[in-house]
Design goal:
About 45% of the residues lie in helices and about 15% in strands. The model has no long low-confidence stretch (mean pLDDT about 95). The site of magnesium ion has 4 residues, from strand 12.
Length: about 675
């Protein structure tokens, strides 16, 4: 497929388009608003809205929508057409007021008890920083979503506040050190992993279309052992999909850059070029939708679930994070000897991660990620950092060990080299000039994690500022000394070994680090005073809002697990057991007197499996009935975790065993082998 890069961003109403088409005083007012220098007034918004509408109409739009990210984890949109009845005539109108504010009925979005259903009002407000875009016949306007009483009902609002906080804290400290900067912004690159599966196979598996993952299934003899899939030749069918995906993303101004096969069969990745965190999150939400749309157009389904298949790797969304000043300085870039700022920012991140590892664990997780974190393939559930030997040496004031062998080629005179190696097992790995947060679940909205990173950095930087400000001598020397002190105080968070090993679990325990196994347990972090204070002191979320988020997370865990549990028992009764009976009939068709010994043994086995699996499915159903006696969602979640999930694991072992004994023709649904390899050729 040809792509004319001149079309890049064709469907994005970005600053360049605004500059070209808006009267210049209006454009300047808009930029002032983006830079938080002066808020927009209605008259200016009217002109922008008109301009935006003309652009949208010229691309065939009939509708616009405020687009927001409610706490359900997905995106929300309600389309309104531009049409107005002006004196009996249909006229396309779009006012500044409609651009700035909308009032969707908020009653059916998760609110965690913030409002009673009769107080249904919610408001969306235009996020001037994130450009509007077109999909199909609709103009999308990124917005924040709040309740009538002003509480945050979305993920964007708190992220924006945390971005302001980190800028303020960083600028203050940098100015104290004589650096003339006006703003500091987090930049992120979100690598998106996903699976593709043939649509026909997908539709034959209730677990896949009801829960996004398989609840049953055996790994075939060949899966990912040979390590041939990772970076391997991209299957034809997927190549076509990727071409179409890129085109759609580029048209929307998303800098899709890398694409490759991932480790597991049927697993792939796309990574855009990093950008402003707020915009990067919006673009990632959009990317996830487009991945699914383009897959469907190609008779495939894109699985964004963290662990669609047991026994092969799951999917993450690596969150590459750095902080950039308005003068273009990357504060995580180690620059030779002039590295004071680098040492400050890295040591502050270490402090933040050490003190708030429970929040990082929580904000990287969802119910799906439980089957990935610590499953000997993704980062472990223990939050630690890897900062590379060269960086440790900077703190330890050791000379850099030159153990790397220099690689030479006769054909190229200079081969660029890196200061540090990588550690693929670390949840937070330094990778040259950024930190890669690797725990985040593939299907998740990245706002919350980045909100937490921004805030823990802000807090550490503010404390740093307060101490340094009181010091009257050489501030730079003092700052280096303080960074070193922080490094020594929080060294326990550093780990450069194999994060998947059992020794690390033991070692982390000795160091007093958290090892929170499940999402349900991780939610408890929102009861902690220190965490509530962190959100509150930066006015990002008050204690009521934190509590609401806690309730929503419990409710979400409960609902997701219950859907999975019910799907599992129904599949057992309605599909697995009948297939075993079919197999029995098939074996017994010749009559008992003609059956061989091995056939009789198989009959015994099948009968045993049928009895065991229906017994277990029945036990699970009984325990599910007991859920009504649990007082609240937290108790319900713990009941599921401790009393029901172990039974589900047992049931899976039996049904997976059964799969081995059932002939191909009697299998109740496509097996893993088919799901993997229908895509990979
Ligand atoms: P890898 O898989 O080897 O880590 P990728 O190219 O798949 O590399 O992804 C790296 C991601 O990190 C990309 O999104 C890239 O744009 C992003 N990135 C690069 N430099 C920075 C930076 N300074 N800040 C934030 N993200 C960055
Ligand atoms: Mg990558």
């Amino acid at each position: 497929m040809d792509y004319d890069f001149k079309n890049f961003g064709e469907l994005l109403y970005d600053k360049n388009k605004m500059k070209e088409t808006l009267p210049s005083p209006i454009y300047r007012r808009f930029i002032d608003a983006v830079n938080h220098e002066m808020p927009l007034d209605l008259a200016v918004a009217d002109v922008i809205a008109h301009n935006m509408k003309m652009w949208a109409l010229s691309h065939g739009c009939t509708h616009y929508t405020h687009w927001f990210h409610p706490l359900s984890g997905s995106t929300a949109e309600k389309h309104n057409s531009f049409i107005e009845n002006i004196d009996g005539q249909p006229i396309a109108r779009f006012s500044g007021k409609s651009l700035i504010k909308d009032e969707p009925d908020a009653s059916s979005f998760p609110n965690g008890g913030l409002r009673a259903t009769f107080e249904a009002r919610g408001y969306t407000y235009w996020d001037v920083e994130s450009p509007a875009f077109i999909r199909g016949h609709v103009l999308y306007i990124p917005t924040v979503f709040i309740s009538y009483t002003g509480e945050a009902l979305d993920t964007k609002g708190p992220l924006l506040k945390s971005i302001e906080a980190i800028s303020k804290s960083s600028v203050r400290l940098l100015n104290l050190l004589g650096k003339n900067v006006k703003s500091v912004k987090p930049y992120i690159g979100l690598e998106q992993e996903y699976f593709l599966v043939d649509k026909n196979d997908f539709l034959k598996r209730r677990d896949l279309y009801l829960t996004g993952k398989t609840l049953l299934g055996l790994v075939p003899p060949k899966a990912q052992q040979l390590e041939t899939h990772y970076f391997g030749p991209i299957p034809q069918r997927v190549n076509k999909f990727m071409e179409e995906l890129n085109k759609e993303l580029w048209d929307l101004g998303i800098y899709a850059k890398a694409e490759h096969n991932e480790v597991a069969p049927g697993q792939f990745e796309m990574a855009p070029i990093f950008s402003n965190a707020n915009i990067a999150v919006d673009q990632n939400m959009l990317t996830m939708e487009i991945l699914q749309d383009v897959a469907l157009k190609n008779d495939m389904v894109c699985l964004l679930h963290e662990k669609p298949y047991q026994g092969v790797n799951g999917s993450g969304k690596h969150n590459n994070y750095s902080l950039l000043t308005d003068t273009g300085l990357n504060l995580f870039d180690p620059k030779g000897d002039n590295d004071t700022l680098f040492l400050i920012f890295v040591s502050c991140l270490m402090k933040g991660v050490d003190e708030y590892s429970d929040l990082i664990r929580l904000s990287s997780s969802n119910p799906g990620n439980d089957f990935r974190l610590g499953a000997s393939e993704a980062p472990p559930a223990i939050i630690s950092m890897y900062i590379a030997e060269v960086i440790e040496n900077k703190f330890e004031k050791k000379s850099i060990s030159k153990k790397n062998k220099k690689f030479k080629m006769d054909t190229i005179s200079s081969l660029p080299s890196d200061e540090s190696d990588r550690n693929r097992t670390s949840p937070i790995a330094f990778t040259g000039n950024k930190f890669e947060f690797r725990s985040l679940g593939s299907s998740m909205n990245a706002s919350e994690l980045n909100m937490v990173i921004n805030l823990i950095m802000s807090k550490a930087l503010d404390e740093f500022y307060n101490e340094l400000n009181l010091y009257n001598g050489d501030k730079e020397a003092k700052a280096r000394e303080m960074a070193l002190k922080l490094y020594n105080e929080h060294k326990r968070i550093l780990f450069s070994g194999n994060g998947y090993s059992d020794e690390w679990v033991e070692e982390a325990k000795n160091r007093g680090l958290h090892n929170i196994h499940t999402f349900a347990e991780a939610i408890k972090a929102l009861n902690e005073e220190k965490n509530i204070n962190l959100f509150d002191s930066y006015q990002v979320l008050n204690s009521k809002e934190v509590n609401a988020r806690k309730e929503i997370k419990y409710e979400n865990y409960y609902n997701i697990r219950l859907i999975e549990i019910k799907t599992l028992t129904e599949m057992t009764y309605q599909q697995v057991i009948p297939s075993a009976i079919k197999e029995l009939n098939f074996i017994c068709a010749c009559g008992k007197e003609f059956m061989s010994k091995s056939m009789l043994t198989k009959v015994d086995k099948l009968q045993l499996f049928i009895d065991e699996s229906s017994l277990l499915a029945g036990q699970i159903e009984d325990r599910v009935k007991e859920l009504i006696y649990q007082n609240n969602y937290q108790e319900k979640c713990m009941f599921i975790l401790n009393n029901i999930l172990p039974l589900c694991s047992k049931l899976r072992i039996i049904t997976d065993n059964l799969e081995k004994y059932i002939s191909k023709d009697n299998q109740p649904f496509p097996q893993y082998e088919q799901l993997f390899f229908d895509i990979d050729f």
